[in-house]
Amino acid sequence: MSLKVFFLTFIILLVFSGAVNGRRFISDSGGLISDGVHSEIGRDLEILRLDRDFAGGEEESCEQSYGFLPCTKTALGNVFLILVYGYLMFLGATYLSSGSELLLEILGPGIIGGLFLPVLGALPDAMLILVSGISGSTAAAQSQVSVGMGLLAGSTVMLITIIWGTCCIVGKCDIQNSVAVDMKDTRGFSLTGSGVSTDIWTSHAATIMAASVTPFLVVQLPQLLHSTSGRHLSVLIGLIISLSLLVSYCVYQVFQPWIQSRRLAYVKHKHVISGVLKQLRMRALGRLCTDQGAPNIEVLEKLFKAIDEDADGYLSCTELKALVVGIHLEEINLHENDAIEKLMKDFDTSHDHQVEMSEFIAGVTKWLTEARGSEASSPEAGPDTMKYLDDLHEQTRREHHFLGDQSDESVETVENPRSTVIKAVLLLLLGTVIAAVFADPLVDAVNNFSSATSIPSFFISFIALPLATNSSEAVSAIIFASRKKLRSASLTFSELYGAVTMNNLLCLSVFLALVYIRGLTWDFSSEVLVILIVCVVVGVFASVRSTFPLWTSLLAFLLYPFSLVLIYVLDYKFGWS
């Protein structure tokens, strides 16, 4: 923290030195000394010289943000300012991220994890996009808004190309049976034998990311149809769709933990079913099913009597315990008592806390029917082999693995919740203020650097600004991926897909609102095409598979220079912009 304080002190001194230099130019101009002989002529010459100096100063002058922040027209000066303001935006993004994580520890997922966390993560980008076109004349806003589009496209492309590929490399583990084995990395940089695996929820996040490009397509329709009359209306329709999808996505994020817990409970239940049926098959003196596939009542009655140790005609919880002993419940993080409770709930239809023979036969019959009808049944599985029980048991174990159950993780309690909440709120306020104050100067510095070097401001914002607004997110994702576990990899890639989704919805909503309210022209066909290509390619690819060998990271890296070259060719060779 001392380094940050030193850096901020340096910025304050720089601001004051800029203000002092501005005042010194005026004070020096008044230092006229008369020689007593040519006073009038000297004064006239001195006034003429000052007029010339002031005229030249006006030609090279720049407009200071808020009237006091330093600015310059030189290329090197603006490089320095971009680094300074970019660092401050990075600092603001870091404070927002830290404050959000502290609130998440106190309040847990749901509203905080599903709504505030994604919104706050996209806040610095949204601020930069907002200030790029909110002030000045319409012509100036049309010129500056390319900075906002450059940031929007650059953030999206960087997150799912460079950062995605880097996380794949640092999180790589050995791939066995199409699954990356946690904490096992012995194959080096094998392009096919090493990689990462993610859970099913990460695939869902990738699907949502691919679908989030819908507003871009809507806004782009008039250009595709070569129409000029409906462009303003298409921006409004795209804005409405973008806001609707944003609200829907936030609602999904709020309820996603509940959906995940229900899905996990169902998979655990299926695992108990398949495990119990396997135990019954091993203990039965005969086949559980007849040649026609119907349950073998005689064998089931013998099984019931064998389990009913006290021969009272009912199975108690203690007697049912014998059926779950060899199921390896630790594989699905399920306690033995919970498994017995599931058995009793399925079999005890009379709700008298004991299972009679008819209930036992009906329950086993229902389970056998469910097991035969499951997707896990192989073509060679039939009543003779009962192989579908093994298939179902293995399938449920894999499903549980890819669902990313975290119920076995210890939850750390916060010692002083009140002080933690205060600290979180202060960090969020500080991050928001920094992002709001220094977004405008950063956009001005980018535009001034563009003017000084004749480099299009879009490419500067595409490459440089995402480094400032997404650095903290990228660093934390890479560090988390280096833990080399399915859970950490799933969380890492889910956060990347979620950040891109918020860019495509929240940041695009801000951008479209600017274009519509200020009456600007939507002329970003090449940028939209790049966003569509990258999001759809990565989103569809990540939605249909959950294991990514190392060669996939090379493809991700190649998408970044491909995006830059494509925009350049379309805009400056084919004249799309």
Describe this structure in words.
It is a single chain. By secondary structure, the protein is an all-alpha fold. The protein has helices at residues 2-29, 39-60, 75-107, 111-121, 123-133, 138-170, 200-211, 214-224, 231-283, 297-307, 317-324, 336-347, 357-372, 387-403, 417-453, 457-463, 465-469, 471-481, 486-517, 525-544, 551-572; strands at residues 173-176, 179-180, 194-197, 314-315, 355-356, 547-549. A four-stranded antiparallel beta sheet has the order 2-1-3-6. The chain has a two-stranded antiparallel ribbon with strand order 4-5. A hairpin with a 2-residue loop joins strand 1 and strand 2. The longest helix is centred in the middle third of the chain and has 53 residues, at 231-283. The two termini are 45 Å apart.
